[in-house]
Amino acid sequence: MAHVESMFRQGSSAARRVAHDTSRSIWVRRLARLGFAARGALHITVGALALMAALGLGGEVTGQKGALAHLASQPFGGVLLGLVALGLAGYALWQFACAALGTAEPDGHSPLKRAGHAVVGVLHAGLAVAAFHTLMGADEAGRHQEREWTARLLAEPLGAIVVGAVGVVVIGVGLYQLYQAATAKFREKFAVRQMSPREEHATTLAGRVGYAARGVVFGLMGAFLIKAAAESDAREVRSLDGALLEIAQSDAGPFLLALVSAGFIAFGAFCLMMVRYRVLSRG
């Protein structure tokens, strides 16, 4: 028994060393910064297309997969999309390293914080896969993929409870985004002393506006998940593009869509500022 425990400790220690080496890798950190740029490009693309639609200048209301397809259609789109895919994959790897090791933040080693990093890593790994599929010309037909998965889940025992719980979590994420917008605590993760006063002001403003817009959209997505659970109807689920469409179809649709779209563009600019000034803390 003692021998087994010793082997377990050695294996655990080796895994932690691998994770630690990964988090310290300069290449992982460079890929993480490329990931910030990729996130910025996606948010700016989603926001710009929606803003054009709100102003009647063409464009379309789409989500991140639609943004990937739009980037692929641009001149040198293959190169651009390849960089976005690589950046998203690197960002996911960095998030997984943070989940394994924790970070240097005050609560960076808490189970909840680590779980959050893991979830973010999974989401961006999925986006990276979608980007690679788009790059290879694969058909990412799946605009309503969330509804399909929700329908399967609702068909299972206690599925409605799980879907409702996910909706509550998504609303919680939205409230956290609004909290960041109100408090600007994201400034703690920036090397503010390296920024000029103008850069600091612009980054703070972009972060506040961007987080506020994301908070509204996440709140809508969570509310529709709860509605889908309550009515056992997967058709009520709204992904990013669906939430933006709901905003567009409201009484003050074009005006509200323009505001939220501008917020997404602001968050994209905020992500681009993270490329240079974000402090990549590690455990």
Shape: globular
**Structural class, from secondary structure content?**
mainly alpha
**Amount of helix:** over 70%
Number of helices: 10
Task: Point out poorly predicted stretches.
Answer: 1-12, 14-23
Helix and strand run: HHHHHHHHHH
Number of extended strands: 0
The end-to-end span amounts to 31 Å
Strand content is under 5%
Structural Rg:
20 Å
Structure description:
With 283 residues, the protein is mainly alpha-helical. 76% of the residues lie in helices and 0% in strands. It has helices at 2-24, 26-54, 64-72, 77-101, 111-135, 145-154, 159-183, 197-231, 240-248, 253-277. The longest helix has 35 residues, at 197-231. The chain is globular and about 50 Å long.
Short description:
The protein is an all-alpha fold and 283 residues long. It has ten helices and no strands.
